[in-house]
Amino acid sequence: MSAAALIPLTNTTALQLPCSSTTVTRRKPSVSIRNSLVIETAEDQASAETPRESVARRLILLRHAKSSWENRSLRDHDRPLSKSGRADAVKLSQKLEQLGWIPELILSSDAQRTRETLKIMQEQVRGFLEAEVHFISSFYSIAAMDGQTAEHLQQAICKYSRDEILTIMCMGHNRGWEEAASMFSGASIELKTCNAALLEATGKSWEEIKNCPLNSSITWFYHDIFWFGKGHVRRFHKVSTS
Q: Can you tell me which residues bind substrate (predicted)?
């Protein structure tokens, strides 16, 4: 078992918009019916026999915006964003909205600088506010461990996602986020503060993408230039505020 598998995905907080839940109870018939037949329509049969189709699933790997070092007494975990970091978070949220990359699920480190980055993005773009959010404490610590982040992110995605969710954003720190982006894309990727790697793969489920072999030749994009590499991600962009 790898080191990443030993780090529990605990201490999470789920933030969701309030929603109502309705339970429908079907009453049993008041009379008994013998030799009853269950008639299955052609539509029901076709639905049961039709396999789930592969669809494009998108992953945003976002490094937090620039943090402040003014208060040296603060723990690293508690450092807030700097003035320029707050401005960058505004720009990035607008860029992602323009590109149409709005997540339905957000998995984030619980560090102050990632929380603040997300809060600003939610204030700027309603789509980020409507997403389901989980703060995962292990995202902060795993990023400092060599070669462990990619597998840990895959585990978290499979744990918290559902197959109907098509866009997920993971927010965290270097060096782990750079390593994960590089491993997933097959390229050497540098993520500065408030940079986001946008990755896209096709699969019937997130679990299928996680288990996809990494030895098939694919075409992917990097800064709008065509490159050729190896991996299960078929498209790659890097988004920055500059």
A: 113
Which pLDDT band, with edges at 50, 70 and 90, does 33 fall under?
A: very low
Tokens of 16: 């969701």
Residue 184 maps to which CATH number?
A: 3.40.50.1240
H-state helical runs in the chain? 42-49, 83-99, 112-124, 126-130, 138-142, 149-160, 176-185, 206-210
Quickly tell me which residue has 């408030």 as its tokens.
194
Comparing 28-37, 51-60, 96-105, the range with the smallest average pLDDT is: 28-37
Residue 185 lies in a domain: yes
At 242 the pLDDT is: 62
Q: How many domains does the chain have?
A: 1
Q: Is 113 annotated as a binding residue?
A: yes
What's the sign of the alpha-carbon dihedral 203, 209, 212, 215?
positive
Q: What share of the chain is helix, strand, coil (3-state, %, to 5)?
A: 35, 20, 45
**For the segment 76-104, what is each residue's pLDDT rounded down to a tens digit?**
999 999 999 999 999 999 989 988 999 99
Question: Which of 10, 11, 9 has its CA nearest to residue 151?
Answer: 9
Contacts of 2 (CB under 8 A, 6+ apart): 148, 151
Q: Which residue would you say has higher pLDDT here, 68 or 33?
A: 68
Query: Could you list the residue range(s) of the whole structural domain that residue 218 is in?
Result: 55-239
Residue 85 lies in a domain: yes
Q: Do residues 238 and 195 touch, judged by C-beta distance below 8 A?
A: yes
**Three-state secondary structure call for residue 196:** strand
